[in-house]
Write a structure and sequence with these properties.
The structure holds 2 protein chains of 2 kinds.
Chain A (H helix, E strand, L loop, with lengths): L3 E3 L2 E5 L4 E6 L7 E6 L6 E6 L5 E4 L2 E6 L4 E6 L8 E8 L7 E3 L3 E6 L1
Parallel strand pairs in A: 2-11
Antiparallel strand pairs in A: 1-3, 3-8, 4-5, 4-9, 6-7, 7-8, 9-10, 9-11
Chain B lengths: L4 E3 L2 E4 L5 E6 L4 E9 L6 E7 L2 E5 L7 E4 L6 E5 L8 E9 L7 E3 L3 E5 L1
Parallel strand pairs in B: 2-11
Antiparallel strand pairs in B: 1-3, 3-8, 4-5, 4-9, 5-6, 7-8, 9-10, 9-11
Classes of the chains: A mainly beta, B mainly beta.
Chain lengths: 111, 115
């Protein structure tokens, strides 16, 4: 039931791009993306509510394909501050339900 | 900017002892959640709370766990008799009722260490 993320880990040099994928075996109503730095709480990045919709947060954007039951997070021109573990979360059901998180993708950006 | 707060930041307890973890959700939010994260693993849902009652709970949330909203601001998680495997980071999250979005905002967490 939990979403599956790939890759598990990625190392980038500053300025490089990355894509993190999140897929589910069940129908998705929405996909939530969070970033967590070591020892800190997950920080909300964005939520995708509609199929095919793209959203952006600075140089981080995401897409959501309802039919394929997957979402992708795009990090463009990565900065050192992008380092952390990225989690996608999908609702247990529809509406006001808690999130089920993937295992996370550890992103390391090096100078 | 409003935020979720949690106390204590770190709690050390002996196996079998009771612990209470406290959270103050964002003031106009109505949905509250507890999640936990064992070191190096993913964030796991424990329980959700709305309108003064549990709305959903996971299989992790057994009879040893309880939640309460004792007043208009605090939201607590109680573990009656802690086990070693309860050692984890516990996050409280809250979500607003209004608006078309469903963002959950997490607190900074309480690191629980059971010895």
């Amino acid at each position: 039931q939990q979403p599956v993320q790939s890759p598990q880990a990625v190392i980038l040099r500053e300025g490089e791009d990355a894509v993190i994928n999140c897929s589910s075996s069940k129908a998705l109503y929405s996909v939530h993306w969070y970033r967590q730095k070591h020892g800190e709480a997950p920080v909300f990045l964005m939520i995708l509510l509609k199929g095919g919709e793209q959203k952006g947060h600075e140089k981080i954007s995401a897409s959501f394909n309802e039919k394929k039951q997957q979402s992708s997070l795009y990090l463009t021109a990565s900065q050192l501050s992008y380092s952390g573990t990225y989690f996608c979360g999908t609702p247990l059901g529809s509406g006001n339900t808690p999130l089920v998180f993937g295992k996370g993708t550890r992103l390391s950006v090096i100078a | 900017e409003p935020e979720v707060t949690q106390t204590p930041s770190h709690q050390v307890t002996q196996m079998g002892q009771e612990v209470i973890l406290r959270c103050v959700p964002i003031s106009n939010h109505l949905y509250f959640y507890w999640y936990r994260q064992i070191l190096g693993q993913k964030v796991e849902f424990l329980v959700s709370f709305y309108n003064n009652e549990i709305s959903e709970k996971s299989e992790i949330f057994d009879d040893q766990f309880s939640v309460e909203r004792p007043d208009g601001s605090n939201f607590t998680l109680k573990i009656r008799s802690t086990k070693l495997e309860d050692s984890a980071m516990y996050f409280c999250a809250s979500r607003g009722l209004t608006g078309g979005t469903y963002e959950q905002y997490f607190g900074p967490g309480t690191r629980l260490t059971v010895t």
